[in-house]
Structures are given as C-alpha cells and as structure tokens.
Design goal:
Length: 142
C-alpha cells in the first residue's frame, strides 16, 4: 500500500492570508511535493558546513525563539562524543536508552561512526522574545 501524502493547509495565524497586504488574499499552502524537493536539495553539512539552528515556542505571546548561525564540524573526539551521548541520554531518557526507545543504539552508533554528530561554532545568534505582547530582538555576535 503506498504511503499517503500529507494534506497541507494554510495556517492563518502565521500567514499573510488575513493581513491587508497586496497579494495576500491569493496566498496558498505549499504542496508537500515542493517541500520535499527543497529538503532534498538542502545543504549537506559534509559538503557545506554553514548552517542555522532554530528552536522556539509555537506561541505568539510568550517564549524566546532562537536562531544560531555558524559552521558545523563533525565531532570525532571520543571524549566529546561521550559528552554528547550523555547529554542526549539525560535529556531524552528512554527514547535513547531503552530497547523500545525511538533512538536506541544511537550512542553506540556515534562511537562506531555509523551515526555522525556535528557541533556548530556560532558566528551570530538571534533571539526573538515575546512576553504578553512585548517583543524583543537580540543579536549576539561571537
């Protein structure tokens, strides 16, 4: 049975569909095939180490979204790999450590080299804060 295709829908909370801007009324959701095509063409860290890491909260009135830009370098030092593995296992617990876990064996894979880990040395980072309608934008340069 072929895998079903995801259904895309425009999320009005974060799009221009409801903003009174020229052309905004015609905005549509991106098809999954286009998203996949762009993922397949995205950078490979082994070929182009410049990257951006993002994290944040899916809430408009609270939280801090972070973007870190920098250069990724493969981690091969066994002592550093052990630190990475310990941090992952401490954060994700059973997902990493139990045989039923989603990522069970990943730590051993890192030690053997079949799973690679990258460290990102930041060049620039940005923080976009939201606190009950009060917004901030911080830039850090390293």
């Amino acid at each position: 049975m072929p895998a079903s295709q995801p259904v895309g829908e425009l999320d009005a909370r974060y799009s221009s569909a409801t903003n009174p801007r020229p052309g905004a009324a015609a905005v549509t959701a991106v098809e999954w095939a286009e998203a996949r095509r762009q993922l397949e063409e995205a950078k490979n860290l082994a070929r182009d180490p410049h990257c951006a890491l993002t994290t944040g909260r899916n809430h408009l009135a609270e939280g801090l979204d972070l973007i870190v830009e920098g250069m990724a370098k493969r981690v091969t030092d066994p002592a550093v790999l052990d630190e990475v593995i310990a941090a992952h296992e401490a954060k994700y617990g059973d997902h990493m450590t139990s045989p039923e876990g989603t990522f069970f064996g990943m730590g051993e894979g890192m030690r053997k080299g079949s799973v690679v880990a990258f460290a990102v040395a930041p060049d620039t980072a940005y923080g976009f804060g939201r606190d009950d309608g009060v917004f901030s934008h911080t830039r850090w340069t390293f």
